[in-house]
Design a protein that fits this description.
There is one protein chain. By secondary structure, the chain is of the alpha/beta class. The protein has helices at residues 11-15, 34-43, 58-61, 68-83, 102-114, 184-196, 215-227, 237-242, 254-257; strands spanning 21-24, 51-55, 87-93, 120-123, 138-139, 141-143, 161-166, 203-208. The strands form two sheets. The protein has a five-stranded parallel β-sheet with strand order 1-2-3-4-5. Strand 1, helix 2 (34-43) and strand 2 (51-55) form a beta-alpha-beta unit. Helix 2 (34-43) packs parallel to helix 4 (68-83). The chain is globular. 26% of the residues are buried.
Length: 270
């Protein structure tokens, strides 16, 4: 984001200048007021290509203790997004302990039935799920350092959809800023794997993990560059300053920056 921001700045509109999907993390910890979702939709009124993926609350995936009222609160927000064609899908992110047992399969079916009318992405990490397939959900493809050797990274296609979550890879002898920052070579390997499955899919979601230093954003711009056949990528000057290696793929010059951070509309949270 820009270093100087006005009170009226729309963060989601600024983000949508560069990306066309965001995975909502706040919904894992809290039940959002529908007014917040309506505000997002209003701010994106003139943006054609942008969707949200909605992470299911931890009460459903980790605590396994939820109420009908909580489910309805989530459904209300999902319906708002789906009505405006802004819903990419619902992410069900389970802990490593969620093994492929009969009880857990029954519990997963229960959640699938509750949220039957929405696209669903399911993240499971226990090795007992490897090679499992399902008709009504998309199994997430995960690249995460702590899963190395436990749950192999590979791109999984389900229902002609891929939901790819990239957390980065631990680099030995790296600085704190460089932790989990993919190297260009690692990104090219993933890009090659993505392009191999193009004939099998209709939709591919590529989600980068948010890090304190912005590593996921830097890698997202690089991945876009590779997937777009080395096209130069529009990006804010602030990230180029933080990651000089992006200079070679950025099409922005200093003259392009003037007026870039001025919001187009005044947004009200009412």
């Amino acid at each position: 984001y820009p270093f100087s921001q006005s009170k009226e700045m729309s963060w989601i509109r600024f983000y949508a200048r560069y990306f066309n999907v965001v995975e909502i993390n706040a919904t894992y910890y809290s039940f959002l007021n529908p007014g917040i979702v309506k505000s997002w939709l209003y701010q994106l009124n003139e943006v054609d290509d942008f969707v949200f993926t909605y992470k299911l609350h931890q009460n459903f995936t980790h605590k396994k203790n939820y109420t009908e009222e909580q489910a309805n609160a989530i459904i209300q927000n999902l319906d708002l997004l789906q009505k405006e064609e802004r819903l990419g899908g619902l992410l069900l992110q389970f802990p490593y302990s969620f093994a492929c047992t009969d009880d857990n399969i029954d519990y997963l079916r229960q959640l699938i039935n509750i949220f039957e009318t929405y696209p669903k992405f399911v993240e499971v990490k226990h090795p007992t799920w490897v090679n499992k397939r399902a008709k009504s959900i998309t199994i997430c493809s995960i690249d995460k350092p702590e899963l190395d050797g436990k749950y192999p990274f590979r791109i999984t296609v389900s229902n002609r959809t891929v939901y790819l979550r990239l957390f980065g890879r631990e680099q030995k002898d790296s600085s704190e800023k460089e932790r989990f920052l993919y190297s260009p070579g690692e990104l090219l390997e993933i890009e090659h794997d993505i392009k191999k499955i193009y004939p099998e899919v209709d939709k591919i979601f590529v989600i980068m993990k948010k890090h304190d230093h912005g590593n996921g954003l830097a890698n997202a711009f690089e991945m876009m560059h590779y997937l777009k056949k080395t096209k130069m990528i529009n990006m804010p000057q602030s990230i180029v300053q933080a990651y000089p290696r992006l200079q070679r793929i950025s099409k922005l010059t200093e003259s392009d920056i003037s007026g870039l951070f001025t919001p187009d509309v005044t947004i009200s949270n009412n």
